[in-house]
Design brief:
By secondary structure, this protein is α+β, with helices and mostly antiparallel strands. It folds into three domains: 1-164, Serine Threonine Protein Phosphatase 5, Tetratricopeptide repeat (Alpha Horseshoe), CATH 1.25.40; 348-488, no CATH class; 507-707, no CATH class. 39% of the residues lie in helices and 17% in strands. Strands 7, 8, 9, 11 and 12 form a five-stranded antiparallel beta sheet that branches. It has a four-stranded antiparallel beta sheet with strand order 1-2-3-4. A four-stranded antiparallel beta sheet has the order 15-16-14-17, with no helix packed on it. The chain is elongated and about 105 Å long. The model is unreliable at 6-34, 117-129, 413-423 and 428-432 (pLDDT under 50).
């Protein structure tokens, strides 16, 4: 039972105990700092002090004393109060073996003790007589055998099954909660716990049926009902209904606990800093934060908030079905671990990456006698190298963790059953060793080569690594993987399926200093006239109607740095040419400080509805600071005196720089190289002198120097 649940037991007992219990000032902080953060921490076992005169005086007094001791428990290691509670309940049961309230108290005791022993294997628990979870379920069963109408015992039995975990035990918990809800639909938060258990058991149909049929009220508050219904609807291909339920649920949040239930589903994809910001807000602030959070993720993907929300819940369901760890408390990490999460959310590392980035573009695996279970995922990126992740499940445990290098999938030599000799890893390198050791070395290298070759389709780099197992190449692999893990575990991404015929266009960002002394980036782009709809213009001529959305983010940050949307028209007094290669240039300018940015520019043809998204990154230097600085470089089709000082392509009111964002020029076409130099020192007449050296090269595969 989670420690925060203990606090709720105490609070439940306070009205009955009066002023006899004083909570330690450290309790709230202690309960909040659990490493594993399951949804069960929002539910607590329910104590049942008997009504006056229920039992003979000595039995009644012993049961009341047992619950009083439970109320003073500060955590699973608090043996003083736990043992005192146990002794009191045992005294009651010696006199009356059918005392249901005492059996319920014994079950709560065992549940509390089980949390302390949860990290221990079941076999070891039995050896040391510490199988507390089994003893808890037996105690609750005995309470129900004596008093089938003791609803608290049935509720607690369901909690015990949930704490045991596993599909079979979730089904047992569903069975008990269905009985409880049928007998007492308004008892505690039984319907809410039943809905959560339906979800954990993967029974979406059952979840929808109970969410739509059970009456509302304190036992099944609207916020929780709508959240569970949204989860089931999203994963039943009912996106619009799911989004509507989610939004209604957020509006219905009235207390911190309800907000926490929504935040529980977001915990796997956020940072501790984001978590702290959320928890610092009041209830209304948390509701607004939830809405803004999904909108910011949607903006980053150029989709609606409903679509991004649905994608997250589809991923969450897939992770529950495929990457769940039944006892995350047993996860352990070496000092050299490639990734240690800020908290456990119930999934292995595959679930962490899947929740953040979705289905990988490529998957690879390899099996061999000296290789642990392994799988590699690759995600293509619009800019930069692909992201690659290697997961290894050591010692045949179904817990896949990210590793620093693919080589980590090879079973350690210290665990191999050679049986004949002490392995010398320096065999063949100046040391003497026997032929058996030499065979081990040769076998390891063959296994390594085959393992790396199995990843060749993910990146040609792995084929090169497999050829010679060059230490420098393997060292570079470790550097690249560390970068990918940092990006993969610190960002989210969602790229919706492209349309059958996406709009294609080039984008070219260039940092400048504006006349006002502020750094800005000009995003030059050009629309191929063969890709857009040309319509007649009122009064003669032709035009293209389109809209743009430009989003900029700093890597690792959830909120966008800048988000711009506008409708635009490109018009001509004559006919816009539709020849192949004809382009309509345009530019969007955004003021940005120095730094690294990721951008996305979406253009939509307002007449045809076709759209496209171009993503990339741009580095902005401190071109507005003191000292010598250079702008970005523009490759332009023309640079000429400006006739419109405020035109979009006019620089400093003097020159019109008509860039070619594709940077593709015909062989006979002149290339204008435009750049700006800032911070030059002028002589007495006001002139500045400088020298530049530049090189123009054709793109790969040619790579020829065109001009220097």
């Amino acid at each position: 039972m989670p420690r925060s649940a203990l606090l709720r037991i105490v609070l439940a007992l306070l009205p009955w105990l009066g002023a006899a219990v004083a909570l330690p000032m450290t309790s709230a902080a202690q309960f909040a700092n659990t490493e594993y953060l399951p949804i069960d921490r929002h539910f607590a076992a329910i104590p049942t002090p008997p009504d006056s005169g229920t039992y003979p005086p000595d039995v009644q007094a012993a049961i009341i004393e047992g619950y009083r001791q439970l109320a003073m428990v500060t955590g699973p290691p608090d043996d003083a109060h736990l043992d005192a509670a146990k002794a009191s309940f045992e005294r009651a049961l010696e006199s009356d073996p059918q005392a249901a309230h005492a059996w319920n108290g014994m079950g709560i005791y065992e549940l509390t003790k089980d949390e302390h022993w949860l990290v221990v294997l079941e076999s070891v628990k039995k050896i040391f007589d510490r199988d507390h979870i089994s003893m808890a379920t037996k105690a609750f069963d005995k309470a129900l055998a004596a008093r089938p109408d003791l609803h608290a015992a049935r509720y607690n039995l369901a909690l015990a099954y949930r704490q045991t975990r596993g599909e079979e035990n979730y089904q047992r918990a569903v069975r008990e909660l269905r009985k409880l809800v049928a007998e007492a639909p308004g008892f505690a938060d039984g319907p809410l716990l039943l809905g959560v258990t339906y979800r954990d058991a993967g029974d979406l149909a059952g979840l929808i049926a109970m969410a739509e049929s059970l009456p509302g009220g304190a036992a099944f508050p609207p916020a929780g009902r709508q959240l569970l219904l949204a989860y089931a609807l999203f994963n039943s291909d009912r996106l619009d209904e799911g989004a509507e339920a989610y939004r209604a649920g957020v509006e219905a949040i009235t207390d911190p606990r309800a907000a926490e239930l929504y935040w529980q589903d977001i915990l796997p994809i956020i940072s501790p800093e984001t978590d702290a910001r959320f928890r610092a807000l009041d209830v209304e602030g948390r509701k607004a934060y939830l809405r803004d959070f999904w909108q910011s993720l949607a903006d980053a993907s150029f989709v609606t908030a409903d679509a991004r929300l649905a994608e997250h819940y589809r991923r969450l369901h897939h992770a529950y079905e495929n990457y769940r760890i039944e006892i995350p408390e047993r996860r352990h990490y070496a000092a050299t671990a490639a990734y240690v999460p800020p908290w456990q959310t119930g999934f292995d590392d595959r679930g962490v990456i899947y929740l953040r980035h979705g289905q990988p573009d490529e998957i690879a695996t390899y099996s061999g006698p000296d290789v642990e279970q392994n799988v590699s995922w690759m995600y293509e990126r619009a800019t930069g190298d692909p992201l690659i992740f290697h997961f290894v499940s050591a010692e045949d445990v179904q817990d896949f963790k990210l590793v620093r290098r693919l080589e980590d999938a090879i079973i350690s030599n210290s665990t191999k059953m050679t049986g004949q000799t002490t392995f010398n890893p320096q065999c063949g390198e100046g040391g003497r060793c026997d032929r058996y050791d030499a065979r081990i070395v040769a076998g390891d290298r063959r296994e390594m080569r085959d393992l790396y070759a199995s990843r060749g389709h993910l990146d040609p780099y792995y084929d090169r690594a497999a050829t010679g197992l060059d230490p420098q190449i393997l060292e570079r692999e470790e550097t690249n993987l560390a970068r990918d893990i940092a990006i993969g575990t610190g960002t989210q991404s969602f790229t919706p399926e492209p349309s059958a015929s996406p709009l294609l266009y080039p984008v070219y960002p260039v940092p400048f200093r504006n006349p006002g002394g502020v750094t800005a980036v000009a995003f030059y782009y050009a629309l191929p006239t063969t890709e857009v709809t040309v319509v007649p213009r009122a009064g003669g001529g032709s035009q293209v109607d389109y809209s743009t959305q430009l989003l900029l983010q700093s890597p690792g940050e959830e909120a966008p740095v800048s988000r711009q949307e506008n409708d635009a028209i490109i018009s001509s007094p004559g006919s816009i040419p539709r020849d192949p290669g004809a382009m309509l240039p345009a530019v969007r300018t955004v003021e940005l400080g120095p730094g690294e940015y990721q951008y996305g520019l979406k253009v939509t043809d307002l007449n045809s509805g076709r759209s496209g998204i171009v993503r990339g990154s741009v580095t902005v230097g401190d071109v507005a600071g003191p000292g010598l600085a250079l702008s970005g470089i523009v490759l332009a089709a023309r640079v000429e005196p400006a006739t419109d000082a405020s035109g979009p392509f006019t620089r400093w009111g003097r020159l019109k720089v008509l860039t070619l964002p594709s940077r593709m020029f015909r062989r006979s076409q002149p290339v204008f190289v435009y750049y700006e130099v800032y911070g030059l020192t002028a002589d007495a007449p006001g002139s500045a002198r400088y020298q530049t050296t530049y090189t123009l090269e054709s793109r790969p595969p040619d790579g020829n120097v065109v001009a220097r």
